[in-house]
Amino acid sequence: MTQKTQYDIVIIGAGPAGIQAAIHASRKQTRVLVLGRLANSALFKGHIENYAFVGKVTPGRELLEQGLAQINSFGAEHLAEDLLQLSRDGEQFVLDLESGLEIRTQALVLAMGTAKKKLGVPGEKEFLGQGVSYCVDCDANFFRKATVCVTGDRSAAVDGALTLQKIAARVYLVTDKLEIAPSLKRLLDASAVEQINGKITLIQGEKGRGLQQVELADGRKLVVDGLFIELGSKGALELATQIGVALDTDTMQYIAVNRQQETNIAGVYAAGDITGPPFQMAKAVGEGCVAGMAAATYVRDLQRKAAVQKA
Fold it and tell me: Would you say residue 142 lies in a domain?
C-alpha cells in the first residue's frame, strides 16, 4: 500500500461495522482508510449462523477476510496498525499510529467495539475501581505521584506506561512477550518505565483501602497503588475521550449517536458494538452502512463548500 497520510475518511476498526462503512464510503468515491487488525474483531474467532443470506455456519474469520477483499476492490485501503492517539487540528482529525505514521482525515467512523480483555486472575474483579483500571486516559490523574503498574504486550500498554510516567512517581510495565513497532520500542527503552518480564497471576489488597500489590507467576511481588490492564489496542472509551465524543448518559459505556450514526462531534460517526446492545453482526452491518454513507456525504459537502470559496 502506498503510504498516504491524508484521507477523506478513516474508519477505526476492521470488524463488520467498519468493513461495511468502508464499502459504502468508498463506493461514493471518497478516499477511505480502514485502520485495525481483523483479529481484534469479536467476530474473528466466532461463527455466524443467524445472519440473513448466510445459509450455513460460517467462520467469522472467513467473513472478515471476504469483507477485506471487498473494500480493497472498491478502492479503500487497510492498515493493520494500532492507533495510539487521536486529536483535532481545526476541521481535521489527526491519528498517531504505533509505527510513528501520522494520518489526517476530514471524517472518522469509530467502529472498534467495546470489549476490554481481562486478565482473568483473582482480585481483578474485586478491585476494579479500587486500583484496577482498563483505561489510562480515563484514570491516570487519580494516581499522581503514586506507584503504578501497566500490563500488556501491545501498543496500548506501552503508550499507557509512557503516559503514566509523566504523572506517577514510579511505573512498572509487566509484559510477557512485547509485540510493538520498533519506533515505539525505542521510546520505551529511553523512558523511565521499569520493564518486567512476566505475567500477573494475583491482585491483592484490602476492601475499603484498595489495591496494594500484584504477584507474578514466578512469585515476585510488586507493591503498587494502581494496575492498568491494557491487553489490546486502544478501546472506544479512551479514544472517544481524547476528542470529546459524548457517551450515553445511562451507562457511560457506549458512544451516543443519532439515527445517522452521528456523534456530538461534527465529522465523527460511530457504529457497531461501540454504540451499545444488541451485540449482533446484523446491527453492526446496518449501522456501518449508515455511518459510511453519512460520513461520505459530510466530506463531499465540505469539499464542495471549499470549491465554491475558491471560485
Answer: yes
Q: Positive or negative, the Cα torsion across 260, 71, 78, 7?
A: negative
Q: Evaluate if residue 97 carries a pLDDT over 60.
A: yes
Q: Are residues 25 and 80 in the same domain?
A: yes
Beta strands 221-223 and 210-216, pairing class: antiparallel
Per the prediction, the chain carries an average pLDDT of 92
Indicate if 31 and 160 belong to the same structural domain: no
Same structural domain, 267 and 166: no
Query: Which residues make Cβ contacts (< 8 Å) with residue 165, sequence separation at least 6?
Result: 171, 191, 192, 193
pLDDT over 60 at 1, yes or no: no
Reported as half-sphere exposure (CB side, CA atoms, 13 A), residue 133 has a value of 24
Q: What is the pLDDT of residues 142-182, one digit of tens each?
A: 999 999 999 999 888 999 999 999 999 999 999 998 988 89
pTM exceeds 0.85? no
* 60 plus 149 within the same structural domain: no
Question: What is the domain count for the chain?
Answer: 2
Q: Which domain holds residue 162?
A: 132-229
Classify 290 as helix, strand or coil: helix
